[in-house]
Specification:
Blueprint (H helix, E strand, L loop, with lengths): L1 E7 L11 H8 L3 E7 L12 E3 L7 E3 L1 H11 L6 E11 L2 H7 L4 E6 L7 H6 L3 E4 L9 H12 L32 E2 L2 E2 L2 H4 L3 H19 L11 H15 L4 E6 L3 E2 L5 E2 L5 H13 L4 E5 L3 H15 L2 H5 L1 H7 L2 E4 L2 H12 L4 E5 L10 H10 L4 E6 L6 H6 L2 E3 L13 H13 L3 H5 L3
Parallel strand pairs: 1-2, 1-6, 5-6, 5-7, 10-13, 10-16, 13-14, 15-16, 15-17
Antiparallel strand pairs: 3-4, 8-9, 11-12
Helix pairs in contact: 7-8, 8-13, 9-12, 9-16, 14-16
GO cellular component, one term: cytosol
Protein name: tRNA (guanine-N(1)-)-methyltransferase
EC number: 2.1.1.228
């Protein structure tokens, strides 16, 4: 059984902990909760609990003697966690709650006035926690919040241990929306998927809603969340939809493409292709950049890199690179990219293939630029890796853009160079005004 002791100058404030789940957990012997008045440790005449600041200043500081005496009296377990509530502490979160829920004993010291004498923290405290970047009158409310969060994680506290596993932050994400009867109220209906009984469809819907809610309300949580490649795909679609930029996307295809023997292969993804093409896409104002890669190992590698730049340390370390790589989506096939664009725009995209090989009926840059300018249709501009897109892929496209020609006969540009040149021809030199059109 967990033992929780709370040291406070205002014990009557903790009446709420006698109610609801916490109160029931205490009554059922799942945990023991004691609220102690710090003044009980100031001697028989209940002396001072605070005094003036050394060095001058406004306000009072809580004295160390009563707190040292209280900890000596209350500490029953050698591994007890002694927690000070303070705005100068690290932010309390679900991970901290889960960690503390495994402790045998917790002792909370509720700060007040200008704070607690530093020697209490130095000699006694194992943890200093804040519940957010704002100032409260004292540490009582934070102690209540933390105690509630911890106690409800104890086995048996909720009546069903899986209840705590399916709540907000259990997987690093906010919880999906919840509904109950009636199925229709004031013209608002429960989503049809939740009424159909298809458990896999319900699971997918809940995951999608959880991702969307986290992206909209608490995107910083995504940096530590466990995300699948399907999650990354959905997040890329959410970002593209929210940006409301042009209706042109770019796809870098790793399969199906040719090798130099004209065999259909799956190529490996390169870090330079990821970064440089993303920067070109951002520079010329396209809506997004899909990496088409079906190989599981490659997708895992790309997903790890994208998470670092889109939500992790890289997003804060280099905001410009984060902005560019934030446009990337990872999909398994060209068809998946087309489906994503159709979801975002409400209509399937027109496919533009690129090739280094000249053929009849290829489109010129000026002609295609004018068409995109005048059209409300979304477009997907496809580039092949290796030795280029397969003949079948090109045949299925709505049009093929003519190759990039230089002054000589050599025509073997890297895909990164070809992307930059083609984007400049379609959207550059006045392309800023051009891109604003769609």
């Amino acid at each position: 059984m967990m033992h929780i002791d709370i040291l406070t100058l205002f014990p009557d404030m903790f009446a709420p902990l006698r109610e609801s789940i916490v109160g029931r957990a205490v009554r059922n012997g799942i945990c023991e909760l004691n609220v102690k008045n710090i003044r009980d440790y100031t001697g028989p005449k209940h002396g001072l609990t605070d005094d003036k600041l050394y060095g001058g200043g406004v306000g009072m500081v809580m004295k160390p003697e009563p707190l040292f005496e209280a900890i000596a009296d209350l500490k029953k377990k050698p591994n007890a966690r002694i927690i000070i509530t303070s705005p100068a502490g690290r932010v309390f979160d679900q991970q901290a709650a889960e960690e503390l829920s495994h402790s045998e004993q917790l002792i909370f010291i509720c700060g007040h006035y200008e704070g607690i004498d530093q020697r209490v923290e130095d000699a006694l405290a194992t943890d200093v926690f804040s519940i957010g970047d704002f100032v409260l009158t004292g540490g009582e409310l934070p102690a209540m919040v933390m105690a509630d969060s911890i106690i409800r994680l104890l086995p048996g506290a909720l009546g069903h241990d899986k209840s705590s596993e399916e709540e907000s932050f259990s997987e690093g994400l906010l919880e999906y929306p919840q509904y109950t009867r009636p199925p229709e109220f004031n013209g608002m209906t429960v989503p049809e998927v939740l009424q159909g009984g298809n458990h896999e469809a319900i699971r997918r819907w809940r995951r999608e809603q959880s991702l969307a809610r986290t992206y909209e309300r608490r995107p910083e949580l995504l940096s530590n969340a466990v995300l699948t490649t399907e999650d990354m795909r959905q997040l890329a679609a959410l970002k593209a939809e929210s940006r409301g930029e042009s209706k042109v996307w770019l796809a870098l295809v790793h399969y199906p493409v040719y090798n130099k023997k004209n065999t259909i292969i799956n190529t490996s993804t390169t870090n330079l292709d990821i970064h440089d093409i993303a920067r070109a896409v951002a520079t010329f104002g396209l809506s997004g950049y899909y990496i088409v890669q079906p190989a599981p190992a490659q997708r895992e590698l790309i997903g790890t890199l994208l998470k670092h730049w889109q939500y992790g340390f890289g997003a804060h370390y280099n905001p410009d690179r984060h902005e560019a790589l934030g446009k990337i989506g990872l999909v398994e096939s060209i068809a998946a990219a087309k489906t994503e664009i159709a979801k975002i725009t409400g209509q399937p995209p027109k496919i533009i293939a690129t090739s280094a090989k000249a053929s009849p009926d290829m489109r010129g840059y000026a002609e295609l630029r004018q068409e995109i300018w005048q059209s409300n249709t979304p477009y997907l501009l496809m580039f092949g890796t290796g030795w280029g897109l397969t003949d079948e892929t090109i045949a299925e496209a709505d049009c093929v853009l003519r190759p990039v020609y230089g002054a000589g006969s050599y025509n073997h540009l890297s895909v990164r160079s070809a992307v930059s040149i083609i984007l400049d021809r379609l959207f550059g030199e006045g392309g800023a005004k051009f891109a604003q059109k769609f």
